[in-house]
């Protein structure tokens, strides 16, 4: 008997493989058309199988945020990995050196303390670790604050043993591609004026994936969420619900009042991340239902705006606001085509915060 979605217990995470392939193919075609290298961030899927598919389709390598994620990907044969996180402390640096011995590894940093720690760890290993200087082009997370600071840090990296300055990296603010391009162009020119080669300029993010060519100075782009998309991206104008490949299959377990339904999926399934939206997800079969709040194991649904209302026992699918955090909460996700379950994936890089 074929394995179908009806055979799955709930809550379960469904990954529509046709949509995944379409999302990846479209992005790779865009990147190829613009001479841009793709280095997808694996934070969205956390699956070695899909990282391999991204590389097979043309990605030059992958991006990871945490060493543990990179270790899982290296174990699965991914051999070109950028770690976009300031790595601090002996435990992580020991693992970094072990990883650098077995894959092409690069790191991003934004300060001298991290640079010196990396250099101390790499000195004597007989390898040069490529280092990108992270630039805050407006997103106000990590990153040096000016072209002058980028140049000063590039000089330090270039002079330190065990390290090789490779270029610049940013996680950009949304919808400010021209500002990002101006920032990075000025920084690249300043670094080069100091006599330091700047081979890579790594930009990222899904919201501006299809205008990434406007950041003309960038040599590579690191999209993450584009593989699954999610409700926050659709709300922000990126694609439609048809592009959303990750859905949560959940069962209505109670209808305590006419206006309320309760799901068997709460914050342990969806997380509490709204990404700035007023509620938590989009009901594919009942677009007027509102996923208004969570207990750990209960999803509270306001049915009052919907004429059609699900019955107890009915299974509904929800596109979550933020796909990446849902991937992180499940041991297994199911690859589906239509109603057929093609395979179960172990989410091998979930939960790896170190
Ligand atoms: C450093 C870095 N690069 C790339 C990405 C991918 O961004 P997105 O999920 O918008 O595609 C992220 C997301 O958090 C990130 O932190």
Helices and strands, with pairings:
Blueprint: E1 12-16, H1 17-33, E2 37-38, H2 48-56, E3 62-64, H3 67-75, E4 80-83, H4 90-102, E5 104-109, H5 112-122, E6 129-134, H6 147-159, E7 163-169, H7 177-193, E8 200-204, E9 220-222, H8 231-235, E10 246-257, E11 260-263, H9 267-270, E12 281-283, E13 290-294, E14 299-302, E15 315-320, H10 323-327, E16 332-337, E17 340-346
Parallel strand pairs: 1-16, 2-9, 3-4, 4-5, 5-6, 6-7, 7-8, 8-9
Antiparallel strand pairs: 1-10, 10-11, 10-15, 11-14, 12-15, 13-14, 16-17
What is the gist of this entry?
The protein has 354 residues and is an alpha/beta fold. It has helices at 17-33, 48-56, 67-75, 90-102, 112-122, 147-159, 177-193, 231-235, 267-270, 323-327; strands at 12-16, 37-38, 62-64, 80-83, 104-109, 129-134, 163-169, 200-204, 220-222, 246-257, 260-263, 281-283, 290-294, 299-302, 315-320, 332-337, 340-346. The chain is 29% helix and 25% strand.
Describe the structure.
- Helix 3 (67-75) links the parallel strand 3 and strand 4.
- The protein starts with 11 loop residues before the first strand and ends in an 8-residue tail after the last strand.
- It is of the alpha/beta class.
- It has two domains: 18-225, Alpha-Beta Barrel (TIM Barrel), CATH 3.20.20.10; 232-321, Lyase, Ornithine Decarboxylase, Chain A, domain 1 (Beta Barrel), CATH 2.40.37.20.
- The chain is elongated and about 70 Å long.
- The model has no long low-confidence stretch (mean pLDDT 97).
- It has helices spanning 17-33, 48-56, 67-75, 90-102, 112-122, 147-159, 177-193, 231-235, 267-270, 323-327, and strands spanning 12-16, 37-38, 62-64, 80-83, 104-109, 129-134, 163-169, 200-204, 220-222, 246-257, 260-263, 281-283, 290-294, 299-302, 315-320, 332-337, 340-346.
- The chain has ten helices and 17 strands.
- The strands form two sheets. Strands 1, 10, 11, 12, 13, 14, 15, 16 and 17 form a nine-stranded mixed β-sheet that branches. Strands 2-9-8-7-6-5-4-3 form an eight-stranded parallel β-sheet.
- The protein binds pyridoxal-5'-phosphate (PLP).
- Pyridoxal-5'-phosphate (PLP) binds next to loops.
- The site of pyridoxal-5'-phosphate has 13 residues, from loops.
């Amino acid at each position: 008997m074929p394995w179908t979605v009806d055979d799955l217990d709930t809550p379960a995470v469904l990954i529509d493989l046709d949509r995944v392939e379409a999302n990846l193919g479209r992005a790779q075609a865009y990147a190829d058309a613009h001479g841009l290298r793709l280095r997808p961030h694996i934070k969205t899927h956390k699956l070695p199988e899909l990282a391999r598919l991204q590389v097979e389709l043309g990605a030059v390598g992958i991006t990871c945020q945490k060493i543990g994620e990179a270790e899982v990907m290296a174990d699965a044969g991914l051999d070109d990995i950028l770690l976009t996180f300031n790595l601090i402390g002996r435990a992580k640096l020991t693992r970094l050196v072990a990883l650098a011995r077995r894959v092409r590894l690069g790191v991003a940093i934004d300060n001298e303390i991290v640079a010196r720690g990396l250099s101390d760890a790499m000195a004597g290993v007989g390898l040069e670790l490529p280092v990108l200087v992270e630039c805050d082009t407006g997103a106000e997370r990590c990153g040096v604050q000016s072209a002058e600071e980028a140049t000063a840090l590039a000089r330090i990296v270039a002079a330190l043993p065990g390290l090789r300055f490779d270029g610049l990296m940013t996680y950009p603010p949304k919808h400010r591609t021209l500002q990002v391009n101006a920032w990075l162009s000025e920084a690249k020119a300043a670094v080069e004026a100091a006599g330091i080669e700047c081979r890579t300029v790594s930009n990222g993010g899904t919201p501006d994936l299809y205008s990434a060519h406007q950041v003309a100075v960038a040599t590579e782009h690191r999209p993450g969420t584009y593989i699954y998309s999610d409700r926050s991206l659709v709300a922000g104008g990126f694609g439609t619900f048809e592009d959303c490949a990750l859905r949560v299959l959940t069962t209505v377990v109670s209808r305590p009042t006419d206006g309320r339904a309760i799901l068997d999926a709460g914050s342990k399934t969806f997380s509490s991340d709204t990404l700035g939206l007023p509620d938590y997800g989009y009901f594919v079969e009942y677009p007027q239902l509102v996923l208004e709040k969570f207990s750990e194991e209960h999803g509270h649904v306001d049915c009052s705006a919907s004429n059609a209302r699900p019955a107890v026992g009915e299974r509904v699918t929800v596109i979550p606001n933020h796909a990446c955090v849902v991937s992180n909460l499940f041991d297994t996700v199911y690859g589906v085509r239509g109603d057929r379950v093609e395979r179960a994936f172990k989410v091998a890089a979930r939960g790896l915060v170190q």
